[in-house]
Amino acid sequence: MWTRRDFVRAMAAGGVAGALPFLSHGASVPDVDLRLVASLDRAPIFPGAETPILRFSGELIAGRPDALKPSPSFLGPTLDLRRGERIRVHFVNRLPEPSIVHWHGMLVPERADGHPRFAVPSGGTYTYDFVVRNPAGTYFYHPHPHGRTGFQVYYGLAGLITVREPFESGMGLPPEAFELPLVIQDRRVARDNSLAYAGGMMDAMNGMLGDTMLVNGLANAAFPVSPRAYRLRVLNASNARIYKLAWSDGAPITVVGTDGGFLSAAEGVQTRAYVTLAPSERVEIVEDFSRRRPGVEIALVSLPFSSGGGMMGGMMGRGMMGGGGQSDELLLARFAVRREPPVKGDPVRLPAAGERAAGAGVTAYTELGFARMQGFLNGRTFAIDAVAPDERLRVGQPVVWTFANPPAGMMAMPHPMHIHGVQFRILERSGSRFAGRDLAEGIVSVGRKDSFLILPGEQVRVAFTPSEAGLFLYHCHNLEHEDGGMMRNVLFEA
Ligand code: C2O
Ligand code: CU
Ligand code: CU
Q1: Residue-level pLDDT at 361
Q2: Of the ligands numbered here, which is closest to the C-alpha atom of 279?
Q3: Nearest-atom index, ligand 1, CA of 104
Q4: How far, in Å, is the centroid of ligand 1 from the Cα of 254?
Q5: Residue 375 CA: which ligand is closest?
Q6: Residue 233 Cα, ligand 2 centroid: separation in angstroms?
Q7: Nearest bound ligand to CA 417?
Q8: Whose alpha carbon is nearest atom 3 of ligand 1?
Q9: What distance in Å separates the CA atoms of residue 414 and residue 307, rounded to the nearest whole number?
Q10: Which of 89, 211, 333, 471 is paired with 25 by a 20 to 30 Å CA distance?
């Protein structure tokens, strides 16, 4: 267990305890000042032996005391932030290898984005300083050292970020006491309760898939709920698994937000039979459990799907390697509706449309590729500071960026693409003639997005205007693909 004494000792050993951060940074005091330590630990996840894990532990140094909310498990604490606040984070790397933290979906300055070129060695520290510019929504943080992101996330380094704004209380949403984050991950569990991170050929190709589900870091997750409306903040924090989320009783799913916050009134609440959620995507769901009989138990499941060709959906797709196939049916979490008088939920009033996707600007084009167990972007793989001429964009200039996933035979597979430093709109999806039509029907393409799934044979066009100058990243968020080099820099020039 990570005690306060260990903490002090570890900090003293690292030689960072002496420097009072607010003295070394001039007069301006952040609203939230915290320390985030990554270290080796163990956690009771399954009955029997404890599981070796990596853990983010947080400690508030100064500022709003409820900004840091402990997680119910080995996952990192939730950073509960308010738009406009200034945040300072002192990251302390107590891992035996380099690391750096990225705030996924957050619009932060280049220096605070956790690019792998900022990775600090074992024992090192890194100070982040940023203002919360994002709208109210659900974001997350995770390590980003090149080649080791998949490993470090898999063993437990991830945590939620919630951003709040005052207008949320006027939307008819369930109050904060009836918010339930659902951080969904799959793991491969060995007989001794350790987590297996294989790294064989199939794992490099498909990404790391597991057959044991964890929700909020808990195995066999079960949540007692009241017969009333809940706000579910769902994050797919899995390395590689795509979910086709559905309620076990066939009730539709009501989506009010995506990666970058609420849908607009014009876009409207999205109701789907199921929701496709790729790695790093978020959806906010309002579920009115008063629709269910008190005493009943329902489950959030992932439905089986036709994952689309090649190694993914074909013969290898199902259980030939450990950890199950990409398209397997899975039970994620159970919800037992308490025997209480039901409370009918309010209709949700979404905010008026915000900024629109700007019109004509420059265009960019990226073709995905996958060969020899490795992903490519326009035929290139990641190099720490390489930027090609077609990877330079201007701050303030609208861009329409087309991504194309060729239907390349055996290697055809869906890829969850992600761009750092921006929130974009999806202008158009071509759809796929080849596969995954059922997945396509569950994809929610409205709202502000920072990640999207692209099916084999599909083209997706996204629009945004860079606002932060500097070197950022775009990559496949299948973390094994990312670590394998399916990532590139994009330079936003001032
Ligand atoms: Cu979750 Cu490079 O990001
Ligand atoms: Cu990111
Ligand atoms: Cu990929």
Answers
A1: 85
A2: 1
A3: 1
A4: 26
A5: 3
A6: 18
A7: 3
A8: 104
A9: 8
A10: 471
- Find the 419 Cα to ligand 2 centroid distance in Å: 6
Protein residue with its CA nearest to atom 1 in ligand 1: 104
CA of 315 to the centre of ligand 2 (A): 33
Given 3-state DSSP classes, what are the helix, strand and coil percentages for the chain, each rounded to the nearest 5?
Answer: 15, 40, 45
**What is the model's pLDDT at position 151?**
98
What was the pLDDT predicted at 199? 75
Name the DSSP class of 120.
B
Q: 413 and 326 in one domain?
A: no
Other Cβ atoms closer than 10 A to 298: 20
For each successive 10 residues of the chain (494 residues), what is the average pLDDT?
37 35 57 98 98 98 97 97 98 98 98 98 98 98 98 98 97 97 97 91 93 98 98 98 97 98 97 98 97 95 74 42 78 98 94 70 95 94 98 97 86 93 96 79 96 95 97 98 98 97
Hey, CA dihedral for 430, 236, 239, 451, is it positive or negative?
positive
Say if 87 falls within a structural domain.
Answer: yes
CA 193 / ligand 1 centre spacing (Å): 28
Say whether both 138 and 189 belong to one domain. Answer: no
In 3D, which of 395, 396, 415 has the Cα closest to residue 405? 415
Can you tell me which atom of ligand 1 is nearest the CA of 280? 1
Strand ranges of the sheet holding 425-429, from the earlier edge strand across to the other edge? 374-377, 362-371, 399-404, 459-464, 425-429
Helices then strands, counting H and E runs in the chain, come out as: 6, 32
Ligand minimally distant from the alpha carbon of residue 368: 3
Asked if residue 134 is part of any domain, the answer here is yes
Confidence (pLDDT) at 437: 77
**Which pLDDT score is estimated for 479?**
98
Q: Model-level pTM?
A: 0.92
37 and 185 share one domain: no
CATH number for 90: 2.60.40.420
pLDDT at 482: 98
Q: How many residues does the chain have?
A: 494
Number of domains composing the chain: 3
For ligand 1, residues with CB inside 6 Å are 102, 104, 142, 144, 280, 418, 420, 473, 475, 477
418 Cα–ligand 2 center, Å: 7
Residues 26, 52: one domain? yes
Q: Structural domain of residue 208, as residue ranges?
A: 176-337
User: In this structure, is the dihedral angle defined by the CA atoms of residues 226, 231, 236 and 237, taken in order, positive or negative?
Assistant: negative
